[in-house]
Amino acid sequence: MKILVTGAAGFIGAALSLRLLERGDEIIGVDNLNDYYDVNLKLARLARLTPFENFTFIQQDVANREEIERLFENGKVERVVHLAAQAGVRYSITNPHVYAESNLLGFLNILEGCRQNGIAHLIYASSSSVYGANAKLPFSTDDKVDNPVSLYAATKKANELMAHSYSHLYDFTTTGLRFFTVYGEWGRPDMSPFIFTRQIMAGKAIDLFNYGNHRRDFTYIDDIVEGITRIIDKPAKSCYQIYNIGNSQPVELLTFVETLERKLGKTAIKNLLPMQAGDVQDTYADVSDLMRDYDYSPTTPLDLGIERFVSWYKSFYEN
Question: What is the pLDDT of residue 89?
């Protein structure tokens, strides 16, 4: 297939693009290469994709309406996987306007591009953050998600509502994926695996909010890519669908840190702090719908995933 992947220089976007390229799909990758985190890491991810003749990279911003209109008119793609977004719960507290531009206006431009060009299926990134202050575990897509505790989460909930309106009005197939704490090689430097590894290796303290009493449904990147690929390949169950995509095995944050310490061979200096604004105590994905419809079953245990991440991190940053 010919597939448009937005956020192609991002963590998930680059990993997905590589999988699709290796099996022979033609990929148009879009990314604005912003400086939210190290652009050199984004360029290094892209460098793994550019050798493929079936890969085309276009640097542009999904929030630019005219550029996105031209992209769709010229691209003639069959599927769209929209992963471009301004990420980060905590960054949204201090930089709210960036989220409105990328996550709201950008998503609208993608929806319009799909509608006007007859795209058969739009798959887009939502987030486990939409569950916000929900206390019932595991998180189910049947739960109400009306209590976001960050602007980032609010924009992702808005994306789901926008997709629903387009599916309803135009008989247009959309599938939203609520990602749960994705980690692994080539990951994001603003996320805890990266931050903790960097600090532990440097002999510096790591900040553990809520005094370390968090649980997170850490999901290895290969399991995420496998799930998205299955959704690309199989006709959607319905015109509008939302799925959780996670490991469905939440891990205590202190257990996660202990695993990192073991793989790094170094003990962490722990700075125990109160709960941070915009954060939630636990995440836990109910993935039964995705298992039923796509036979999705994550297979990577935390111990193996962290081992692979640490090996990559040392190779990438120490060589």
Answer: 77
Give the contacts of 166 (CB within 8 A, at least 6 positions apart): 111, 114, 115, 172, 174
Domain boundaries, the chain: 2-184+218-247+281-299
Q: 2-184+218-247+281-299 architecture in CATH?
A: 3-Layer(aba) Sandwich (3.40)
- Three-class DSSP category at 36: coil
Question: If you count them, how many residues does the chain have?
Answer: 319
Q: Which two tokens stand for residue 32?
A: 């604005």
**Which structure tokens are listed for 163?**
């997709």
Catalytic residue among 36, 99, 124, 152: 152
Q: How far apart are the first and last CA of the chain?
A: 37
Q: CA 260 to CA 58: how far, in whole Å?
A: 36
Of 28-32, 46-50, 275-279, the poorest mean pLDDT is in 275-279
Q: For residue 18, report the phi and psi dihedrals to the nearest 5 degrees.
A: -60, -45
């977004």: which residue's tokens? 85
Q: Which whole-number Å values give the CA distances from 38 to 70, 169, 201, 203, 206, in the listed order?
A: 28, 40, 19, 22, 20
Residue 152 annotated to the active site: yes
pLDDT tens-place string over residues 279-289? 778 899 999 99
pLDDT at 282: 85
In sequence order, the 6+-apart residues with CB closer than 8 A to the CB of 215 are 250, 251, 252, 253, 281, 282, 283, 284
| Arithmetic mean of pLDDT, 18-40 | 97
